[in-house]
Design brief:
This protein is an alpha/beta fold. The chain has five helices and six strands, in the order ααββββαβαβα. Helices cover 29% and strands 12% of the residues. Helix 1 crosses helix 3.
């Protein structure tokens, strides 16, 4: 089980490196496919489908589709892509945000992965959680040049 976080991190970084293009999206895309060399690194002891914990209350990252009742969002899409590259099935479980880390660090964890808009912190890392930062959030202000609003940097 100790290799799985490394495999997950490798897959996430690989997917992130493949993203983006100035040429725009292709006319047709089937998404990621199983990568045999990565799939070979998945320990046989990992039960499948891989159980992934998320708090589906943070749209558009992860939320419940009101029409289908499915857990959806771009974090979910990333999780599905990771599983596809690893060649394993996965199941997303909607749990409370504050229960994800304790469940991941339990002696017999129910979940192998948590995808839920986490911000890496020293406190969370001290609990034995490895993070893969594939997204950086922040704030920005846009003011018209003709505006009387003065913006001072902090």
């Amino acid at each position: 089980m100790k290799r799985l976080p490394i495999v997950l991190a490798t897959v996430a970084m690989t997917l992130a490196a493949c993203g983006g293009s100035s040429a725009g999206p292709a006319a047709s895309s089937s998404g990621p496919a199983k990568v045999a060399s990565i799939a070979a690194e998945v320990p046989s002891s990992v039960p499948t489908p891989i159980q992934i914990a998320t708090d589906a209350t943070y749209s558009p990252d992860e939320y419940i589709d009101p029409t289908t009742g499915d857990i959806v969002g771009w974090d979910i899409d990333l999780g599905k892509a990771i599983c596809k590259v690893m060649g394993v099935a996965c199941t997303f479980n909607n749990v409370t945000f504050d229960s994800i880390i304790p469940q991941l660090t339990a002696t017999n964890p129910r979940y192998v992965l948590g995808i839920s808009s986490f911000t890496p912190t020293a406190e969370r890392e001290a609990k034995g959680i490895d993070f893969v930062s594939y997204y950086k959030a922040g704030e920005g202000w846009v003011v018209a040049a003709s505006s009387s609003i003065t913006v001072n940097s902090a």
